[in-house]
Write a structure and sequence with these properties.
single chain, mainly alpha, Rossmann fold, four-stranded parallel β-sheet, 10 helices, 60% helix
Length: 435
């Protein structure tokens, strides 16, 4: 305890205090006194308090300038101070304030000691706070060091990953360069192959043009041959017309000889045209097939068994239909995949006996075309005549055929029937019992 804090001696009746006690040490006691005085104003009757406290009744907390007047007012009013000492408790006022208010014997010494202890405790608390603060700083420094170390490791990892990415990118660049070189060589190879293909295409175009020219020439020869065939057919028609009658008058012998000579000349011309046409078509076919591989026919073993020929089944006629009716004829023509073979002159002479032979053939073909157009039937009509391609001029909806020289139409019909598969429905139109 310092000499400055020693209690002073006071005369009886004189207000006492510890002058060297800092007013800040009495803050809890002073604020408690103001609070009691303010609360006492609401009592009935009101609590009597020192007049010096009145300016501070509404203060929640006393500042440095207001604490000295409050202290002086309490020192001067012993009665109010004693009542405060009775009401003061450790929960409301600290030990220094209670001792200062109660004024027990030796209170001055007690106040000085309590204040000194409080200062020491404050210093200790300050030292502990400083120590704790230093400890916190040390811990913060350690945390910062650890964080810096972690950041350094992260940076090293980033550098390592970046190095790996760079090496990978360099490897990809090398691979891309190699692939680009490979592609460049492939492009050069493709360009060479393209140039070869262009040259070959040019040669093929020239060859196709030559073939087209050959086809044009062949078409021209075909046109000439067809014209000659028409002339020949007229001669043949005259000859066949004269042969219809079994007897020929002697007066017509010379005329028949002339006709025969004309027919012979026409036949020679047609044969020559046919020969030229055949050569042209052969050359065209050879040009088209020059680049195609030739596949040899499959060998046939000596002991191979010939396939069994099945018999053709007649087309079924629905019930209620009779043989010689239009309904039966239409049913036969509408049969799915049916093939109709017509004995041309046999039908023409029966149907149109008063017409000339050429007119009979023309009307017969036109009638069969109308039937084919109406029912969509596959019709094949065969006439007696020379083996001349295009004997019937123009394109037809049906197949028109003339028998070769020396062969009658009956034999051609038999050959056509034999060549058809047994499962193909077939209708032969003729009244020739030999067929």
């Amino acid at each position: 305890m310092t000499a400055e804090m020693a209690p002073q001696q006071h005369q009886p009746g004189e207000p006492t205090d510890v002058p060297d006690l800092p007013v800040a040490a009495l803050r809890p006691a002073l604020e408690f006194a103001v609070a009691v005085a303010a609360a006492g104003q609401k009592m009935r009757p009101p609590l009597v308090f020192p007049a010096g406290l009145k300016p501070y009744l509404k203060f929640q907390k006393l500042d440095k300038t207001s604490m000295p007047p409050v202290r002086r007012a309490l020192v001067a009013d012993e009665d109010f101070r004693n009542r405060l000492g009775v009401a003061a408790t450790p929960e409301l006022v600290d030990e220094v304030g209670i001792a200062w208010l109660q004024r027990s014997p030796g209170w001055e010494q007690r106040v000085v000691e309590l204040h000194a202890a409080a200062q020491q405790a404050a210093e200790n608390a300050s030292a502990e706070a400083a120590l704790r603060k230093s400890e916190r700083r040390r811990e913060a420094a350690e945390v910062a060091t650890a964080r810096a170390q972690a950041d350094l490791l992260a940076v090293r990892d980033d550098v390592a990953r970046e190095q790996a990415r760079r090496e990978k990118a360099e490897a990809k660049a090398v691979a891309a360069s190699s692939e680009a070189e490979t592609l460049r060589r492939e492009i050069q190879q493709l360009q060479r192959e393209l140039e070869k293909a262009r040259v070959k295409l040019t040669h093929e175009s020239d060859r196709v043009e030559r073939i087209a020219e050959g086809h044009a020439a062949a078409d021209a020869r075909v046109a000439v041959a067809e014209a000659r065939v028409v002339e020949l057919q007229a001669v043949i028609d005259r000859v066949l017309t004269e042969r219809v009658d079994q007897t020929v008058p002697e007066s017509h012998a010379v005329t028949a000889a002339v006709v025969n000579r004309e027919a012979a000349v026409a036949l020679k011309k047609a044969a020559a045209s046919t020969h030229d046409l055949a050569e042209a078509l052969s050359r065209a076919a050879g040009a088209l097939l020059s680049d195609l591989p030739v596949t040899p026919p499959a060998p046939v073993s000596p002991g191979a068994v010939k396939p069994r020929v099945s018999k053709r089944k007649p087309i079924a006629i629905p019930g209620g239909m009779f043989g010689d009716t239009v309904a039966v004829a239409q049913h036969l023509l509408k049969t799915s995949h049916v093939r109709v073979i017509v004995d041309g002159y046999n039908v023409a002479k029966l149907a149109w006996p008063k017409l000339e032979l050429a007119e009979q053939r023309k009307v017969c073909i036109e009638t069969l075309e109308d039937i084919g157009r109406r029912f969509g039937t596959d019709i094949h009509v065969i006439f007696d005549g020379a083996d001349v391609v295009g004997a019937s001029a123009g394109r037809r909806l049906i197949r028109v055929q003339f028998s070769p020289a020396g062969v009658i139409a009956d034999d051609v019909i038999r050959a056509e029937v034999a060549a058809l598969p047994s499962k193909t429905p077939l209708v032969v139109v003729t009244n020739d019992q030999a067929i």
